[in-house]
Specification:
- This protein is an all-alpha fold.
- Helix content is 82%, strand content 0%.
- It contains 11 helices and no strands.
- It has helices at 3-43, 48-71, 74-81, 84-90, 95-127, 134-159, 164-179, 181-191, 194-206, 216-219, 227-253.
- Helix 5 (95-127) packs antiparallel against helix 11, helix 6 (134-159) runs parallel beside helix 11 (227-253) and helix 8 packs antiparallel against helix 9.
- The longest helix is centred in the N-terminal third of the chain and has 41 residues, at 3-43.
- The radius of gyration is 20 Å and the shape is globular.
């Protein structure tokens, strides 16, 4: 795999998505949070600081999820539907470079989105003289980036063999089940049905446990897992990203255009 060609694809995806969509998401977040900072103190006296802390980082996570699910399925599906994939693959570009380049470009977009919205969030909180645990929030933002990068890999893996709409819906389903994986296993055990239990345990083993990467609720209180847990969860996320991209490449390499 040639790094230069991979980065060229990533750069093209990055600027295409940034120009088309992401700047609007950042504007929406800024307007939403400024409005929330004006309205919440009117209705939540004494607890407005805590609500604003929770609301801001939750809004960043939701925007990131929308970008990962909707935009993550678009680059490959658009190339396939417009038949431009034929032109790209006719050049000295391998399918692995194509897949990895698309993922890197989308991850760069997510990095910019999270960085700018976090800067707005923390800047507005500072202007309003709201105390916040800076280090914990920055670590939570980094793990949010890992989570969304993993979801982007899910979206890409799904988009190489199904429609953009179905891939988006399935990405949202993976997100939901990834955050509720332990609850799904518990529900299977409560059903006392061997088939249901086997299915729920299978889902738990196959699907990524995204709750490992969700530090938002702890971070607003200045609480983080211990260092070894953070390192393990970082490796866990990287493993799933590499595995999903390998699966996407395997499926894509078997497709005929």
């Amino acid at each position: 795999m040639n790094p230069g060609r991979t980065l060229a694809i990533a750069n093209n995806v990055f600027w295409e998505v940034i120009r088309a969509r992401v700047l609007y998401f950042i504007m929406v977040f800024g307007l939403f949070f400024i409005g929330a900072m004006r309205l919440i103190p009117e209705y939540a006296v004494l607890t407005e600081d805590k609500i604003l802390l929770d609301l801001g980082i939750a809004a960043i996570a939701i925007l990131g999820l929308i970008v990962a699910a909707f935009v993550g399925t678009a680059p490959i599906q658009n190339e396939i539907e417009n038949r431009t994939v034929l032109v790209l693959l006719a050049k000295p570009i391998s399918r692995a470079e194509f897949i990895v380049g698309k993922h890197l470009g989308l991850c760069a977009v997510l990095g910019v989105l999270i960085t700018v919205t976090m800067a707005l969030y923390l800047g507005l909180m500072s202007l309003s003289q709201v105390d916040y645990p800076l280090w914990s929030l920055l670590v939570a933002a980094f793990y949010l980036f890992l989570e969304l990068s993993l979801l982007t890999a899910v979206a890409i893996a799904l988009s190489v063999f199904t429609s953009s709409l179905l891939a988006t819906l399935l990405t949202f389903a993976v997100y939901a089940m990834g955050h509720l994986s332990e609850d799904i296993v518990t529900a299977g055990e409560l059903s006392q049905n061997p088939t249901v239990e086997a299915i729920t345990r299978g889902l738990y083993l196959i699907l990524p446990d995204l709750s490992r990467l969700d530090l938002k609720n702890q971070a607003v209180y200045g609480i983080l897992p211990d260092t070894m847990t953070l390192i393990f969860n970082f490796i866990y996320a990287l493993f799933y990203i590499i595995l999903l991209l390998a699966i996407a490449n395997l499926i894509f390499s078997r497709r005929e255009f």
